């Protein structure tokens, strides 16, 4: 049985990792800052669904096989890099292609559009974005392979302790996401102005594309 000390040490490690600004933080902040709280929660749920998958795969030993296979790891790395560069480039292209009056509706019009789109569509779209982004990040798999086995007692079944530790990671990440969404919501009125949204999209697109380039370069 996994010990409370091991859980506490793991929680401290992944807690510091969660607080480190990265791709997940960028996606959540950008989505919530634009007033799409339901979609932002979809992104959060998608990211954490990916974390759970990585935890289960690592516990079953599948992730170790992936990281040991250079071909498999490289294929996942390039797929993740291409997806991030595409996503970041799409945001950057949109800010150049459209003027603020053409591409940025008012808050009232956006809320009306969201109502027409449907809450379920927003949630599902956010979930899909978060899930794919997390699952195509081979560094998550490498991190779990390197860290998770250290906290699982020798001779014990790996699945239950692995899922428990992944659950600790997910819980801390959701708590942090609550703080990020609350912060973005407080600044929503300022960030929803056309010029502010344009700059926000440019910053977000640059950050996401940069993550993709770093992943492609193996950094």
Structure commentary:
Helix 2 packs antiparallel against helix 3 (37-59) and helix 2 crosses helix 10 (159-186). The chain has one domain. Helices cover 83% and strands 0% of the residues. It starts with a helix and ends with a helix. It has helices at 4-19, 23-33, 37-59, 62-68, 70-97, 100-103, 107-117, 119-135, 138-147, 159-186, 188-191, 194-216. With 219 residues, it is mainly α. InterPro entries: LeuE-type.
Summarize the structure.
Keywords: Cell membrane, Membrane, Transmembrane, Transmembrane helix. The protein is mainly α.
Task: Describe the structure using short key phrases.
219 residues, mainly alpha, 12 helices, 83% helix, 0% strand, membrane
Strands, helices and their partners?
Elements: H1 4-19, H2 23-33, H3 37-59, H4 62-68, H5 70-97, H6 100-103, H7 107-117, H8 119-135, H9 138-147, H10 159-186, H11 188-191, H12 194-216
Helix pairs in contact: 1-10, 2-3, 2-10, 2-12, 3-8, 3-9, 3-10, 4-9, 5-12
**Estimated share of beta-strand residues:** under 5%
Number of domains: 1
Tell me, briefly, the overall form.
Answer: globular
Could you report the average pLDDT, rounded to the nearest whole number? Answer: 82
E-strand count: 0
Rg is 19 Å
**Proportion of residues in helical segments:** over 70%
Query: Could you give the distance between the termini?
Result: 36 Å
Helix-strand sequence: HHHHHHHHHHHH
Low-confidence spans: pLDDT under 50, at least 5 residues? 99-114
What structural class do you assign from the helix and strand content?
Answer: mainly alpha
Number of helices: 12
For the largest beta-sheet, the strand count, sense and barrel status come to: none
Transmembrane segments: 6-29, 41-69, 75-93, 141-160, 166-187, 199-217
Protein name: Lysine transporter LysE
Membrane topology: Multi-pass membrane protein
GO molecular function: amino acid transmembrane transporter activity
């Amino acid at each position: 049985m996994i010990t409370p000390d091991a859980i506490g040490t793991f929680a401290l490690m992944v807690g510091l990792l969660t607080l480190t600004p990265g791709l997940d933080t960028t996606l959540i902040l950008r989505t919530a800052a634009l007033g799409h709280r339901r979609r932002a929660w979809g992104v959060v749920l998608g990211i954490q669904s990916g974390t759970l998958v990585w935890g289960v795969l690592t516990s079953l030993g599948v992730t170790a096989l992936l990281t040991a296979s250079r071909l498999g790891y490289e294929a996942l790395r390039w797929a993740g890099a291409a997806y991030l560069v595409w996503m970041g480039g799409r945001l950057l292209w949109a800010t150049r292609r459209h003027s603020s009056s053409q591409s940025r509706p008012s808050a009232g019009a956006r809320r009306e559009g969201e109502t027409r789109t449907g809450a379920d569509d927003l949630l599902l779209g956010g979930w899909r974005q978060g899930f794919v982004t997390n699952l195509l990040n081979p560094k998550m798999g490498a991190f779990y392979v390197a860290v998770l086995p250290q906290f699982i007692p020798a001779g014990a079944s790996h699945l239950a302790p692995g899922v428990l530790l992944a659950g600790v990671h997910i819980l801390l990440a959701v708590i942090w996401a609550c703080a990020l969404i609350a912060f973005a919501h407080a600044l929503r009125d300022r960030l929803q102005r056309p010029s502010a949204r344009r700059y926000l999209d440019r910053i977000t697109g640059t950050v996401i594309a940069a993550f993709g380039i770093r992943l492609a370069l193996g950094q």
